[in-house]
Amino acid sequence: LLFAGKDFIAYKFAEGEYIKDYVLQQGRKNIISALKETFRQCFILDKMKLTKEEMHRPLKHVIIGRNKVTLIDFERGHYDMSPKNVTQFCQFIRTGRFAEALKNKKIFIDEALLLSLAKDYKKQPTGKNFRRIRALLK
After folding, report:
1. What is the pLDDT of residue 111?
2. What are the Cα distances from residue 81, in Å, to 11, 43, 122?
3. Is 7 contained in some domain?
4. CATH at 116
5. In the beta sheet, which residues pair with residue 3?
6. Does residue 49 come out as left (phi exceeding 0), alpha (psi in the -120 to 50 range) or beta?
7. How far is CA 106 from CA 3, 28, 34, 40, 137, in A?
């Protein structure tokens, strides 16, 4: 954080690649590590009761640099008694072109199980339920 005001924050430029490009260019191990870290940050936001409102389609909102994942652009973020970052990111990784890109990198996620675990997490956003979701990334 560089500085902040009543309605804004300014932070250091995040160097790296958008998640959509990173997945196309990196190997399986690095991708899984980046996805796990993104999930971890989503879980922290959920614990803080903040919904980013971009995690269902974060193509340009997750930047992955050297050993670092940075979530950017929180302009739609808000306080929320039922935050949705983890569940939105679950939706993102199981659908569309991103899911296909993961499959092309030999990252296979049981969609039915992920959906079931996301529903469990939505009902009870506990560390245990979060770890069950993250454990699918292997």
Report:
1. 94
2. 26, 14, 12
3. no
4. 1.10.510
5. 10
6. left
7. 42, 7, 15, 22, 11
List the alpha helices (DSSP H) in 9-138: 19-25, 28-47, 85-94, 96-104, 111-123, 127-134
Residue 88: CA atoms inside 13 Å, Cβ hemisphere, count?
21
Range of the domain at 44: 18-134
Q: What is the chain's length?
A: 138
Residue 2's pLDDT band, with cuts at 50, 70 and 90, is: confident
Instruction: Tell whether the model's pLDDT for residue 114 goes beyond 90.
Output: yes
pLDDT tens-digit series, residues 61-103: 999 998 899 999 888 889 999 999 999 999 999 999 999 999 9
Is residue 61 in some structural domain? yes
**How many structural domains are present in the chain?**
1
Q: Which residues contact 121 (CB under 8 A, 6 or more apart)?
A: 86, 87, 90, 129, 130, 132, 133
Distance CA 106, CA 93 (A): 14
Is 122 inside any structural domain?
A: yes
Residue 9 placed within a domain: no
| Residue corresponding to tokens 């932070």 | 11
pTM score, two decimals?
0.92
